[in-house]
Amino acid sequence: MKITVEKAVLSKNDELAAALRERFRKLGLKAINIVSSPGSGKTAWLQRTMEILPESAALVGDLETDRDAQRLQESGRPVRQIRTAGMCHLEADMIARSLEGWDLKGVRWLFLENVGNLVCPVGFDLGEELRVVMLSTPEGEDKPLKYPPAFAWAEVVLISKMDLQVPVFFNVEQAVRNIRSVNPSAKIVFTSAFTGQGLREWLELL
Amino acid sequence: MKITVEKAVLSKNDELAAALRERFRKLGLKAINIVSSPGSGKTAWLQRTMEILPESAALVGDLETDRDAQRLQESGRPVRQIRTAGMCHLEADMIARSLEGWDLKGVRWLFLENVGNLVCPVGFDLGEELRVVMLSTPEGEDKPLKYPPAFAWAEVVLISKMDLQVPVFFNVEQAVRNIRSVNPSAKIVFTSAFTGQGLREWLELL
C-alpha cells in the first residue's frame, strides 16, 4: 500500500515537473537543481555565482528558517524561500506555487537550492535542465559510494571547499575514482567559494 | 491517505521499538542512536570510542556499501551492517532483524549509527536509551536552526571536527546559542576524532 501511494505521488510530481519544464523553456530560462548534504556550501557557492550573473534568480528550500534566502538576497538578485515544513526535499508543486506572481522575464538562470539531504531529493524532478550534486572535501571521498543515487543522478558534480583539501586530507584521485564508479560521464568541477576556485569553469558550463 | 499510511508505519515502529527497549534493558545494554549529516564524522568518532570500550558493539546503517562497518571492525568489537537499500533512516524492525542470532552477552554499549541524514531518522525510535546528534564544524553554526527537529530530539549534541574550527571560522558561541534556542537542555560536547578532544567527557557521559 505504501509503495502504491509513493508511486502515485511520484507520477503526479512528474506531470507537474513536465509542465514546469515547458514553462521554463518558453521563458528561455534554465533551471538548475542543486543537491547536497547539509553544510556542503550550496548557499555560499550560489552567492558567488549570482553576484556575477545579473540575470539569475533562486528558489531556496529549507525545513525551517529563511537564512539561506537572506544570504542569497545580498547578491541583489530575486530570491524566494520555500519552507518545506518537515519535508526532506523539494517537489514540483512547491516550485510551481512559489513561482506564482513572480515576473521571471529576463531571468536566464533559476537556481533551485534543494533541502540539505543526499537521499530524498533525487526521486523528485523539479523541471530542471541541469542536475548538480555538491560534495564538500570535509565529508570525505567515500560519499559517492555511500550515496550512489544522488551521484548517479547528477550531470555535474561540484567538489566544494577545496581550500580545506589539505587540513582534511581529501584525496582528489580517490574521490574522482569513486564518482566515476557510479557515474562515468558527469562533469566534475573543483571549487571553493572562499578562494573562487572553479568559478570560471562553472560559469562556462552554465 | 499518505498521512494515514505514514502514521500506521510510525506506530508499528513504536511498538517494535518498545519491545527492543525491553530486550536491551534485560540484557543490561545501553543502545545509543547517533544521527548526523553525511560525512560529519560518526564513524571516525565511534572508532575512537570503541577502541577504548571493550564491551561495545555497533549496528551501522547505510544506503549502500559496508565501508563504515569495515572501519568499525578494526576496533576488534562486534559490528553488523544494515543496508537500507534506499531508505533514508533506520527503523526498529531493521534493528530487530539484525540482532537475530547475535550473542550480545557482555555488551554494555550498542551504538546504532544511523544513515547520514539530518531530516528523516528523527521520527523513528530504535529502542535507544540515548539520542545523539553530531554537528561537524565545517557544516556551520546555523544547522540547529535549519534542522530543528534533529537538534530538539537529541539528548547529547557532539560538535565534531573541532580541529578544523580555525580554518572553517566556526563560531562556538554562536553554535551553542543556536543549539540552545531549539534545545535548552541537551548536553553539548566538543570533540575531535583526530586529536581525541572530548573523548573523556563523552565516555563519562556514557
Unreliable spans of chain A are none
Distance between the termini of chain A: 41 Å
Q: Tell me the structural class of chain A.
A: alpha/beta
Q: In angstroms, what is the radius of gyration of chain A? A: 16 Å
Oligomer: homodimer
Overall spatial form of chain A: globular
Order of helices and strands of chain A: HEHEHEHEEHHEHEH
Strand content of chain A: 15-25%
What is the count of DSSP helices of chain A, taking H or I runs of 4+ residues? 8
Describe the structure.
2 copies of one chain form a homodimer. Chain A is α/β, with parallel strands linked by helices and 206 residues long. Chain A is globular, with a radius of gyration of 16 Å. In chain A, 47% of the residues are buried. The model of chain A has no long low-confidence stretch (mean pLDDT 95). Chains A and B meet through helix 1 and helix 5 of A and helix 1 and helix 5 of B.
